[in-house]
Amino acid sequence: MAIHTDLPIYKLAYELLSVTTDLIKNMPRDYRVAIGGTMREECVELTVLVFRANSARDKTPHLDKLLERVQVAELLFRLSRDKRLISTGQYAKAIAITDKIGRQANGWRKHSASSPVA
């Protein structure tokens, strides 16, 4: 088992958290607390779920939750763009990262489903 902080998916989740933190600091206060706080919490949860999946024998439930959280994060980024709280370029950067996270999580899930649990 690799150290979770060395995994490419963890690095992407951390990058998303960093990007999100930068994006929400420029939001108006009421949106920063409501939407921005939820965005940050979802990104933190992504990193926690990477750790849990890496530690667990049965990775599938954690990876399913991770993929669900990616969808929620994407929804919040889209809402932020639609409300003009972030630019289209900022949105595109965040969505590119969530797309990479989703692809890696799906690949990890398929690999772990095909591997026998010891």
From TrEMBL:
Name used for this protein in its record: Four helix bundle protein
Pfam families membership: bAvd (PF22296)
UniProt organism field: Janthinobacterium fluminis
Domain (bAvd-like) ranges: 14-110
Transmembrane domains' residue ranges: none
